Amino acid sequence: MASAHPNRPRPPAMLLLLALLHFSLGASKINCATPPDNSTDVLWLQAFKHGITSDPSGWFSSWNSSANHCMCSSSIGNLTFLRTLNLSKNSFSGRLPPLNHLQKIQVLDLSRNRLHDSIPDAITNCSSLRKIRLTTNFLVGEIPPKVGLLSNLSVLDLFANNLIGIIPPMLGNITSMRSLVLAANNITGSIPDELGKLTNMWNLALGQNMLSGGFPRCLFNLSNSLQILGLGSNMLSKEVPPNIGDDLPNLQMLVLYDNMFEGQIPASLGNATGLEWLVFKNNNLTGMIGEWIGKLTRLQRLYLQANSFIGPLPSSLGQLTQLRYLTLGNNKFEGPIPPLGQLTQLEGLSLANNKFGGPIPLLDQLTQLTYLDLGNNKFGGPIPPTLGNLQQLWYLDLSQNNLEGNIPIQLGSLTSLYKLNLSSNKLTGKIS
Ligand SMILES: *[C@@H]1O[C@H](CO)[C@@H](O)[C@H](O)[C@H]1NC(C)=O
Ligand SMILES: *[C@@H]1O[C@H](CO)[C@@H](O)[C@H](O)[C@H]1NC(C)=O
Ligand SMILES: *[C@@H]1O[C@H](CO)[C@@H](O)[C@H](O)[C@H]1NC(C)=O
Ligand SMILES: *[C@@H]1O[C@H](CO)[C@@H](O)[C@H](O)[C@H]1NC(C)=O
Ligand SMILES: *[C@@H]1O[C@H](CO)[C@@H](O)[C@H](O)[C@H]1NC(C)=O
Ligand SMILES: *[C@@H]1O[C@H](CO)[C@@H](O)[C@H](O)[C@H]1NC(C)=O
Ligand SMILES: *[C@@H]1O[C@H](CO)[C@@H](O)[C@H](O)[C@H]1NC(C)=O
Ligand SMILES: *[C@@H]1O[C@H](CO)[C@@H](O)[C@H](O)[C@H]1NC(C)=O
Ligand SMILES: *[C@@H]1O[C@H](CO)[C@@H](O)[C@H](O)[C@H]1NC(C)=O
Ligand SMILES: *[C@@H]1O[C@H](CO)[C@@H](O)[C@H](O)[C@H]1NC(C)=O
Ligand SMILES: *[C@@H]1O[C@H](CO)[C@@H](O)[C@H](O)[C@H]1NC(C)=O
Ligand SMILES: *[C@@H]1O[C@H](CO)[C@@H](O)[C@H](O)[C@H]1NC(C)=O
């Protein structure tokens, strides 16, 4: 598009905007000779310019409406053709533009600016909207229930603002919704049952809010679509429903950390064999982890720390060859560690603050390991010299166990080590 204006000065900010503003040009050519008109979209841009209070990248200060008419008017008609407006990753601050003039807009992305406004009801006049991204601004107030009238919306992403109020049940009317991201706001109330009508949704991210109530069983209606479910860091409680893995078999990420869930992790999750992330840390979960975990052969992250899990680990854990992070610390696990030698992708392993016993597990093949914390358990016997094979290690904590014998000289080859804690054991000999 910039090539259509060979004589136009092109400061970088203008080039960026030209790249980000997409007009549906059809077959028409840009012709600056035709007199400008007052299209609704130009009025819109003028109003937006008027509303913003800071424009460090200088686009609006370098923009004037006659220049813009030259760029966008004439044979294009007027900016009511605007289909996509992407002003993301700038430093616009102040108010949101008066959206009601952009009646054909399909994609609106004002993410990563410094907009401080509430989301206006007038957004519902942009009835062609398919994607709205307003992430990482300072938007305040409630999500207008009328957003539920945007029947073609497939992406609503309001991540990281200061929004309050409830999740409007009206959102359940937008059956074309595929991705709903309201994470990192201050949204309260329970998760409305109406979300169970969004049977095309694959990504639901509601974490880092103040949501309460139980696990949203309405989502079991989304069994064919839902792949990512993020509910971490809320105030959700009660049990995780036993049938979750059967009713949401396509889950790839289940993220429930920092809540107050209690009871056991349902064995049915073994049926959700596409799971890559399973994040339950910091809840009130209990019981043993069953052999079913071994069915999740795509699992990359298993975070179970800071719960009240008990018993020995299932031997099938050793089959999860894609695992990169395994954190089981701060529980009441006990018994010996099953063979983990096949977990060659493992980068972080924490078993700290449990009652695990037996010898230190054989880990010499886990050469990707950077973080190993076995502290405050009941491991006995010597420190295996083969720990010296773990050349990537920067954190090694074997403190508060019953380890005996010398510090193996091989540990001296761990040249990446940043933290080594062997305190409170029964080690003897020289420190060489
Ligand atoms: C556009 O609007 C301005 C002020 O609102 C007016 O002065 C001008 O005549 C209008 N131009 C056209 C082409 O309508
Ligand atoms: C803007 O474009 C639309 C669609 O072509 C047209 O109907 C309308 O008359 C134009 N508005 C003005 C003010 O020219
Ligand atoms: C506005 O654009 C017109 C036409 O391109 C140009 O002649 C004029 O100098 C511009 N004004 C400012 C303040 O940049
Ligand atoms: C807007 O542009 C940014 C940067 O080019 C891009 O990452 C983002 O996906 C775009 N937004 C939409 C909704 O396409
Ligand atoms: C929506 O558009 C209609 C018709 O263009 C207009 O009458 C109404 O005021 C607009 N609503 C809002 C909230 O801007
Ligand atoms: C919604 O999408 C359908 C199918 O693409 C289209 O026919 C319809 O015009 C759209 N509705 C609006 C209000 O844009
Ligand atoms: C959420 O609300 C609490 C208390 O009302 C407030 O302290 C906190 O700053 C708010 N957080 C955000 C992200 O708005
Ligand atoms: C939208 O949802 C609300 C509440 O869920 C419901 O009362 C209303 O009838 C729905 N409206 C439409 C147009 O479907
Ligand atoms: C499940 O989805 C269907 C549409 O596919 C809808 O009619 C029904 O109300 C939904 N049930 C729940 C509990 O949300
Ligand atoms: C966890 O459960 C215990 C006992 O069941 C209870 O006292 C405690 O308050 C719970 N903690 C949380 C964070 O819910
Ligand atoms: C789902 O998991 C449960 C518990 O592990 C098991 O009994 C059931 O047979 C599984 N269902 C399917 C369809 O695999
Ligand atoms: C080493 O481990 C002990 C026991 O777990 C702990 O009290 C101490 O703070 C740790 N030392 C360092 C430097 O982290």
UniProtKB/TrEMBL annotation:
Main location: membrane
Compartments where found: Cell membrane
Top-level taxon of origin: Eukaryota
Annotated SUPFAM superfamilies: RNI-like
Residue stretches making up the Leucine-rich repeat-containing N-terminal plant-type domain: 39-73
Family annotation (InterPro entries): Leu-rich_rpt, Leu-rich_rpt_typical-subtyp, LRR-RLK, LRR_dom_sf, LRR_N_plant-typ
Keywords in alphabetical order: Cell membrane, Glycoprotein, Leucine-rich repeat, Membrane, Repeat, Signal, Transmembrane, Transmembrane helix
Pfam families for the chain: LRR_1, LRR_8, LRRNT_2
Residues of the signal peptide: 1-26
A GO term from the CC aspect: plasma membrane
Name of the protein in question: Leucine-rich repeat-containing N-terminal plant-type domain-containing protein
Originating species: Triticum turgidum subsp. durum (Durum wheat)
